[in-house]
């Protein structure tokens, strides 16, 4: 079955460009468009897309609030949100990730990256490029705790190895890179990531990365 995509952006020309790229792919179907967050909510309810390609800054309702409502506890369907941001990494993307977005993509990304990002998100994975997550979180460190706050009790449920994996996820490493760093198989890393998500009640590795920063487990800019 084709991946059903809803395009949400207040610039019609951008929506047209995205539509042309995506409609060239046999396994992707653009089922609708919206020019702001309120229209996006209506379209999600009516069209039941698999992936919402979501702009951040829009009139009436921005992409952060729309993402929160689409992915929240009262969600009306299975839609996952892939946020669009400008080249200089929009500060609101951090809020969108907290709100439940499965990842984000730069607006000037090549066509093949847009297609691949949609495939990845539709498959239930998170970031196309985990390293960008770290750059984003580091850039907007002022929005996050200083790292001096008490570590949440929930972290006590993790094993030492799971804490190691969580730190590496937060620092932008892919599963393959984590496997090489810890001298284990990629399958083992996937298992550890799954345990971390389950124990902490998180949906995906994007939320895990944000959690690691917000909890103070990883400090913005830290290397070790």
Question: What is shown here, in short?
Answer:
The protein is of the alpha/beta class.
How large is the share of residues in beta strands?
Answer: 5-15%
**What would the average pLDDT be, to the nearest integer?**
83
Number of helices: 10
Question: What structural category characterises the helix and strand content?
Answer: alpha/beta
Helix fraction? Answer: 40-55%
| Low-confidence parts | none
Categorize the overall geometry: globular
**Main beta sheet strand tally, sense and closure:** 5 strands, parallel
Order of helices and strands: EHEHEHEHEHHHHHH
Quick one: how many beta strands? 5
Give the end-to-end Cα distance, rounded to a whole number of Å: 44 Å
C-alpha-based Rg, rounded: 17 Å
Q: Strand order across the biggest sheet?
A: 2-1-3-4-5
